[in-house]
Amino acid sequence: MEHQDAIRNRLKRVEGQIRGVLSMLERGEDCRDVVTQLSAVRTAVDRTIGLVIGANLAKCVQEQLEAGENPDEVIQEAISMLVKSR
């Protein structure tokens, strides 16, 4: 998978954010602050999904083109994955 270092770094950041949210809950922090942090986690996960799909879409389309095939199926599959992630 391309961009593995960037993906790994993003996931480690999300992991840290989740730990932070758990810590906030244990300390009994205000629910609005917890929700704000959970929204940040969701945004980070969404961006990571986009990176994974985008990086691999480019590779898959290139492979389809090199094989003389139409890349439309790969593109449609990527779009479906993005829609399902929301």
Present the secondary structure layout.
Blueprint: H1 4-27, H2 31-66, H3 72-85
Q: Which short descriptors sum up this protein?
A:
86 residues, mainly alpha, elongated, 3 helices, 0% strand
What does this structure look like?
The chain is mainly alpha-helical and 86 residues long. It is built from 3 helices and no strands. The protein has helices at residues 4-27, 31-66, 72-85. Helix 1 runs antiparallel to helix 2. The chain is elongated and about 60 Å long. The protein starts with a helix and ends with a helix. The model has no long low-confidence stretch (mean pLDDT 88).
Can you count the beta strands? 0
Secondary structural class: mainly alpha
User: Major sheet: size, sense and barrel closure?
Assistant: none
Pattern of helices and strands: HHH
Hey, roughly how much beta strand do the residues contain? under 5%
Runs in which pLDDT lies below 50 for 5 or more consecutive residues are none
Overall mean pLDDT: 88
How far from one another are the termini?
A: 22 Å
Q: Which range best describes the helical content: under 10%, 10-25%, 25-40%, 40-55%, 55-70% or over 70%? A: over 70%
